Prior knowledge:
Layout: H1 13-24, E1 40-42, E2 53-55, E3 61-62, H2 77-89, H3 96-103, H4 107-121, E4 136-144, E5 161-168, E6 173-178, H5 183-193, E7 199-203, E8 217-221, H6 236-253, H7 261-277, H8 282-290
Amino acid sequence: MASVLNQPFFQDEEAAYAKLEGIVWPNGATCPHCGSTDRMKKMGGIATRPGLYKCYTCRKQSRVTVGTVFESSYVKLHVWLQAMYLLCSNKKGISSNQLARTLDVTVKTAWFMSHRLRAAMMAGTVLPPMGGAGVTVEIDETYIGTKYEKPGGARGYAHKNAILTLVQRGGGSRSFHVDGTKDSDLLPIIKASVAPGTHVMTDEAVQYAHLNKHFTEHDSVRHGESEYGRGFVHTNTAEGFYSVFKHGMKGVYQHCSTKQLHRYVAEFDFRYNNRVRLRVDDTGRTVNALRGIVGRRLTYRDSPSIAL
């Protein structure tokens, strides 16, 4: 059986552009400068760059990569598609060092490529609330990495980065890098992201004590008393999400700056949502990620100080 990476669009530039055009331009070539669709003509000739079009409305040349995370990159498009497939198909992610060895590029190039691809995986800014009548959403938080060195004798996790995750049973996840885990930090996000008619599940943490005022039902498990499930009442789905997340962050990426943590969180949400909610295969996840490349160009200035 041939490797999936032997497909033409992973090996050839013309095929790569044709594949991307079919994803980004499902209704035909569209000028990224003026929006015209009826006067776009593909240019030919030996010296012409692959995938080059000319718009006879605004008289400008462009390719499908203009206005996307692939714009102004010296990396070949078919190599970009390989990188996207590798990032989408590895359950716990792939490090920049491994990506560099696999694609035969420098570590610096692989590092920047991976962050452009994570930008494409990020969900939109306005999403409908999760849950609803008869639906259960589990809510939990965890800590990862450090914002600053823990002072001597200090207690608690204030020095660590806090992550809030909402997981709909049988559905997707939404995770947020939050300032802290106080009620004032979490409640506005929860109320904006979960429909009021939802049955919410949490642990016994004090910041969740009054969720019954905002949602139809609220049950909690007492982790402090070694209770991890009481029939229907548990947060095991959210804990399962964190298991993959922490294995990836600690075992694959090992370190992440506070400034860039939201991109890594988006990466794990994207894979979880496409695997559990949409149930698509590795190629399907790659195609879905490629649909998010438009309007999300990322420059080096946007992403300094990222660990490899």
